[in-house]
Design goal:
Layout lengths: L12 H7 L4 E4 L2 E4 L28 E4 L1 H4 L7 H13 L2 H4 L3 E3 L25 H11 L3 E7 L17 H11 L3 E5 L8 H15 L4 E4 L17 E3 L8 H11 L11 E3 L12 H13 L4 E3 L8 H7 L2 H7 L8 E6 L2 E7 L5 E7 L5 E6 L11 E5 L4 E5 L2 E6 L4 E7 L11 E5 L4 E3 L4 E9 L5 E9 L5 E4 L4 E5 L4 E9 L7 E12 L5 E13 L6 E3 L7 E3 L6 E2 L14 E3 L2 E3 L2 E5 L2 E6 L6 E8 L7 E8 L2 E10 L5 E6 L5 E7 L9 E10 L1
Parallel strand pairs: 3-4, 3-10, 4-5, 5-6, 6-7, 7-8, 8-9, 20-27
Antiparallel strand pairs: 1-2, 11-12, 12-13, 13-18, 14-17, 15-16, 15-18, 19-21, 21-25, 22-24, 22-26, 23-25, 26-27, 28-40, 29-34, 30-33, 31-32, 33-40, 34-39, 35-38, 35-40, 36-37, 36-39
Length: about 675
């Protein structure tokens, strides 16, 4: 079953992940997301309830949880948990702030003992939970555990939940030395959520042991409106998965809830996926940056026993962690969002602002704001600290960068009196990610702009490509003095060798300059060039052509089948209004698929509609020729016949097939580009 609109009370964790589609969007500051209602009041005027007065979780909890990397597999055991504790210490993660080692589902036997007590699985935890807690505590760390506010936990094996056993289970947890409880929502028998979670709150308090209380009811009952004096953190969404689409959707769902977060009461967009392999390192840096600027709990979800050095580098970036752990406890708020270009700013205890320039699109984008827009007072100039590059410059007020596809530039900006001690910031830019055919020269323009109060001197730019590529400047690459606000523009001609396979290749723009003090400064910008194949002459099916990029609301874009929401190839024959189509693209809103047209093509045609398996959906189809919308279907509902759609794409370098959710959420939004053809 796909996209049911309500959740049954006994869903397993696997079904919960499958059924809950967290594809949200911000519209006029109000949450719109699949399967989740918008907040009952505008978040801009929300006031959170008083936090628990127990002094716990004054900053977002940090630690590890095994679920994302092990699920319920046999490798989740005592040795694994102890090994993770060892790694947290040995790799410096404990010193960076990670303190909780949390056990998720499957640690217990399926049945309680004769006295009604929980029994740790002796195969997984032969020494029991207390022995694990003692080991973790000896490392200077803390132990977390999991159960559900229902009769069973979320796993299909049916491990015992705590509903009706709250006080006894809480007492066991305290006696074992547990420091953190994740309390899930499965098999809840329809009992009122607030009552269930308040009962466990009272049971934990009655033990006398300080235990951080994590409410995991998936945002079903808008816990941000009532849970601040119930738990220390509450999930705002369904489960995350290790995909760009899932992380992005959850980000959009969590961002509007900023006013509800603060010391001791945090919005929880779920655990980190950094290092699990489903995203690129650029995407993982965005994931970590966004969770930090949202003041989210930072719970590592990857198996640290096999993690790469890049994963450790991301997770241990103390400047980024400091944003998350800032004692003021503000969650970052959206300053602007347009065309997939996001500015999110977080007020910090020292008066500075953490500013995330986030690019959700598939191409490099210039993202800009200024000091006033992010909440800083007027000043002569501002210091600008790049938290991933670990460099400080100054700006007259503009905050801008060219951000790679799916990337985030995370800055800390302050109105500081010592701004003159730092070099002027320079913004490196380019006119989009270049597309080139092998052996065919392609022009590119790069820019260097002085954002500071003083000139940058002896400015010089160089662009280098992969081995065998030819990169030649067609205009000046250097200038002796670049005054504030001025730009050095350099034209280049790039040629990939004949026979270069289609794909993405990285060039590097490197600019060197000197501050007024004479200090040399180097700035770099990765430039992604795509080597493409020329479109075939005549009329061809788009499902037979390689695409440049593809994003999809759920699961991959499918060729010649519908979208099955999960793995590639799990769809069905494309069917709209009872008519089957052998060729086409199956997508799930929101979706964006781009193709190279090379300025050689004239027309795109398709029969579009909601696939019959998504009969309850509503979508809208658009065809874009470069930056111009060339055709639009209007809103189409499921159960109706396909509508012909034709677009004139003459002269376009790139053609994009876009599907939106028609503004009503993405439930059942399986959309088909049936019989889609490109004429060149």
């Amino acid at each position: 079953m796909r996209h049911p609109r309500t959740r049954t009370p006994d869903l397993t964790r696997t079904a919960r992940t499958t059924r809950r589609r967290v594809v949200g969007a911000l519209t006029a500051g109000v949450l719109c997301a699949a399967g989740l209602a918008a907040p009952a009041v505008a978040v801009t005027t929300a006031e959170a309830a008083p936090a628990l007065a127990d002094g716990l979780a004054r900053t977002p909890p940090m630690g590890f949880n095994n679920w994302n990397s092990t699920h319920c597999r046999a490798e989740f055991d005592e040795a694994m948990v102890k090994g993770i504790a060892d790694i947290l210490v040995a790799k410096g993660l404990k010193d960076a702030g990670y303190e909780y080692v949390n056990l998720d589902d499957c640690w217990a036997l399926p049945e309680r003992d004769a006295d009604g007590k929980l029994v740790p699985d002796p195969a997984r935890f032969p020494g029991g939970i207390k022995a694990v807690a003692d080991y973790v505590h000896a490392k200077g760390l803390k132990l977390g555990i999991y159960t559900s506010a229902g009769t069973k936990t979320c796993n299909p094996a049916g491990f015992p939940g705590a509903l009706g056993h709250e006080y006894g289970d809480a007492r066991q947890f305290a006696d074992w030395g547990v420091d953190y409880l994740k309390y899930d929502n499965c098999n809840n028998q329809g009992v009122d959520a607030r009552l269930r979670y308040e009962t466990m709150r009272d049971a934990l308090k009655a033990t006398g042991r300080p235990i951080v209380y994590s409410i995991c009811e998936w945002g079903e009952n808008t816990p941000w409106e009532w849970a601040a004096d119930v738990g220390h953190l509450w999930r705002t969404t369904g489960d995350i998965s290790d995909t760009w689409e899932s992380m992005l959707a959850i980000t959009k769902q969590n961002l509007p809830l900023a006013p509800y977060a603060g010391p001791g009461h945090w919005n929880d967009p779920d655990m980190l996926e950094v290092g699990n392999g489903g995203m690129t390192d650029t995407e993982y840096r965005s994931h970590f940056s966004l969770w930090s600027v949202m003041a989210a709990p930072l719970l590592i979800g990857s198996d640290l026993r096999t993690a790469s050095q890049e994963t450790f580098d991301i997770l241990s970036n103390q400047e980024v962690i400091a944003v998350d752990q800032d004692p003021l406890g503000k969650q970052g708020a959206v300053v602007s969002t347009e065309g997939g270009r996001w500015v999110v700013a977080k007020e910090m205890a020292d008066g500075s602002r953490a500013v995330a320039l986030f690019n959700e699109t598939g191409t490099a984008q210039r993202i800009a704001t200024d000091a006033s827009a992010v909440g800083l007072s007027d000043a002569a100039a501002y210091t600008l600290r790049d938290l991933w590059q670990h460099r400080t410059a100054h700006t007259a007020g503009t905050i801008a960068a060219t951000v790679p596809a799916h990337g985030t530039v995370l800055l800390r900006v302050a109105a500081a009196g010592d701004w003159a001690a730092h070099p002027p910031a320079v913004e490196l830019g380019l006119n989009g990610d270049p597309l080139l055919e092998a052996a065919t020269p392609e022009p590119l323009t790069t820019t260097v702009t002085d954002l500071g109060r003083v000139p940058a001197r002896r400015v010089s730019s160089a662009l280098t490509g992969p081995a065998g590529w030819t990169v030649r400047p067609t205009s000046a690459t250097a200038v002796r003095v670049l005054d504030p606000g001025r730009t050095l523009r350099t034209g280049w001609r790039i040629t990939a060798p004949a026979g270069t396979p289609a794909g993405a290749y990285v060039l590097t723009l490197r600019t060197t300059y000197r501050a007024p003090s004479g200090t040399p400064v180097t700035a770099t910008l990765p430039v992604t060039a795509h080597v493409v194949l020329p479109p075939p002459a005549g009329t061809s099916y788009l499902s037979d052509q390689p695409w440049l990029a593809a994003t999809n609301g759920w699961g991959p874009v499918e060729r010649d089948t519908s979208n099955g929401e999960r793995a590639a190839g799990d769809g069905r024959p494309l069917t709209i209004g009872g008519t089957a189509y052998p060729k086409g693209l199956g997508v799930h809103a929101p979706s964006d698929v781009s193709f190279y047209a090379g300025r050689r093509c004239e027309q795109v045609t398709a029969a579009v509609g909601v696939d019959d398996e998504g009969a309850g959906g509503t979508v809208a189809f658009e065809i874009w020729a470069d930056g111009t919308r060339a055709a639009a279907s209007g809103v189409l509902a499921g159960g109706t016949a396909a509508r012909p759609l034709t677009a004139d794409v003459s002269g376009a370098q790139v053609v994009r097939l876009v599907v939106t959710d028609a503004g009503d959420g993405v439930d059942f939004d399986h959309a088909d580009w049936a019989d889609a053809r490109l004429s060149c």
